[in-house]
């Protein structure tokens, strides 16, 4: 269910790619996928928080949402997680909801969150959210505005200023005081 890269495309091309191209793919330097998505397409899904509480994604309607699809064995996801937690902590008072969803068991997501001090992790063991958003590469992060419109889609981990700029577009005042975690 969880696919890092579509092997049908990537496998035959691998011998022709240099190390630098592979590194660029790993950190998300390639152009974002032109995928239209809306938050309303996700409203029928429920995910489970680390503490076992279920979250109906429809309950997030009317709030800007930063939704990340991740995996516990993904190096780029490990790089991105502290930044997501930072945005979660800093901008929650402005209404931003940061939701990091893994297509893994609730137990695994819970252990990962507890071991690393993350509080915005959710499990979707069937991978329905990932499938609904056509995610082939993790991490993939989406920013939806309060009306549910997709503002931005990132594949891979990106420098913090890119996320902050997009949050400003969603009406979140990011200010200059947030550390630039690259």
Tell me about this structure.
With 182 residues, the chain is α/β, with parallel strands linked by helices. It has a single domain (7-169), classed as Glutaredoxin. The protein contains 6 helices and 7 strands. It has helices at 7-13, 19-26, 75-91, 106-116, 128-132, 160-169, and strands spanning 46-49, 54-56, 65-70, 97-102, 121-123, 140-144, 150-155. Strands 2-1-5-4-3-6-7 form a 7-stranded mixed beta sheet, with helices on one face. The model is unreliable at 1-11 and 13-35 (pLDDT under 50).
Show the helix and strand layout.
Elements (H helix, E strand, L loop, with lengths): L6 H7 L5 H8 L19 E4 L4 E3 L8 E6 L4 H17 L5 E6 L3 H11 L4 E3 L4 H5 L7 E5 L5 E6 L4 H10 L13
Parallel strand pairs: 3-4, 4-5
Antiparallel strand pairs: 1-2, 1-5, 3-6, 6-7
CATH architecture: 3-Layer(aba) Sandwich
SSE topology string: HHEEEHEHEHEEH
Number of helical stretches of at least 4 residues: 6
Tell me the Rg in angstroms: 16 Å
Indicate the structural class.
Answer: alpha/beta
The counted number of beta strands is: 7
Q: Do you know the CATH topology?
A: Glutaredoxin
Strand line-up of the largest beta sheet: 2-1-5-4-3-6-7
Low-confidence parts = 1-11, 13-35
Q: Outline, from the CA principal axes?
A: globular
The percentage helix is 25-40%
What is the arithmetic mean of pLDDT? 82
The percent range for strand residues is 15-25%
Calculate the terminal CA-CA distance, rounded to whole Å: 30 Å
CATH class: Alpha Beta
